[in-house]
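Researcher: Structure prediction, please.
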Amino acid sequence: MLSFKPGAWLTAALVMAAAGAGPAWARQGQSGPAPAAQQPAPQAQPPAGAPEAPAAQQPAQPDAGARKPRRASRRTPRASGRQPAAVSQDFLDEARAPRDPGPVRRELMLTASAMGGYDDNVTEGLGSGSFGRLVMASGSTADGEAALSYFVGNAARSLRADAAGTLMHYPKYLDKPAAGAFASLGATTRAGRRVTLRASERVGYEPFFSVYAPPGSGGALPSAGAGGVRAAELFERRSLNTNTTAGIDTRWTPRNSTSLSYSYGVRRYTGNTDYGDSRSHTADARYRLILSRAAAWNVDYRFQDLEYTYADALARPVRTHRIEAGPDIVKPFSRRTGLRVSLAAGAGRVESWARAETGTIASWAMTGRASASLAVSPTWSIDADYRRDFSMFQSVTDEVYTTDTARVSTGGLLGRRAALSLGTSYSNWKTPYAGRISGTFDVYGASAQLRVAVTRALAATAGYYYYRHRYSDPGALPEGFPAAFDRNAVRVGLSLAVPLAASSSQRPLSQR
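Model: Predicted structure follows.
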């Protein structure tokens, strides 16, 4: 049974505040003060001692060769069609909150996709422990997804709601299609000119078990394959998960700001065992100092208290601390090209229980991140990132590992109707404890995807995905989990995106 903490009540309160934030904002007098009427400029006085000007002066006769003044046009000025800059070029502009939040937008979007293909799966060295279903066999695959997204708001207040359902079928692995679904709700609102409150709630049902998904969350780690390959979902095991988040962002001065957030996550597996169930409390804090228009400095701290149910049905804590600091740098080359780099380094501490003979063990390790985004042209970009952090290999070895993950991707338009994206990733897992198991885990991934627009709402998609992992000690793995696994997958299909409703208020809220 899912547990919901007081964070859900805060989400509901913000949602109610944002839901009534349509035209009623202006009627309730929440808009900013109207600008004062502009006084006419005083006439210039002649300097002392100057002769007085005549009381009346005849208008000068126009020169015969002078051009007549042009008559004022009655046409409405046309809005600029220039695209925004591909790379944000000014940190001061990013931090500056607009006085006028702008018009209220309302959008309702339907997206859907139907994909089919073939998976070529090769396994070696299956573990000898005890765990449910075996890894998927090679064969055809099919999946479909439909989602609704709704947004209403502007820069001051907004509300977003999303809901999606999925069907996945592997005929040689599943007796019938496996269904999944999720729903999320998020709201943001200003509390004065310097403070922004935000909250969100996500509830999901997942038919497959991903060993890379962090306990107590509803999403997968970046190292879980590449390009959306479901290579990590080796086992059919259903779960319910929920995640509640609340945060406050404060701009103390134009150059100094802080961000605080708290999240509570729960994951419960269906069936006769509690093995793998978890709940987590996570707190994040960030201080940001803008040094110049092209540079900023960040200090980040994270604490997580995780309670994880091990194979002996006992729930034990896993606690992690992490503090990092580093710069953000932006270098524009032109209005539509430029480079943005983000760096951070620090240290983390993990305390966990894994085996009765060792009890609770604590260890320090270096952590850090680096990312770069290069806008090569208005339609093409190259992105790269690296992350060193802690991750739990849940329900496999139940150990906490230090993970080094690197990814590189590029994508852009091929003409007016086609888009190409390429990506590759690598992740290395090692235990940070001295004298513990010495097993290492290496994960590789690559993807290539081509999308061609058939109509304004319909696109054809074709993709190739590669996944490979290797674990050094097969004897430490549970039954059915392969120490070596290679997967080649091909997908073709159609995707649909239809705006069901879209509107925008004609006047800013401060003028309504």
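Model: The mean pLDDT is 77.
Researcher: Thanks, that helps.
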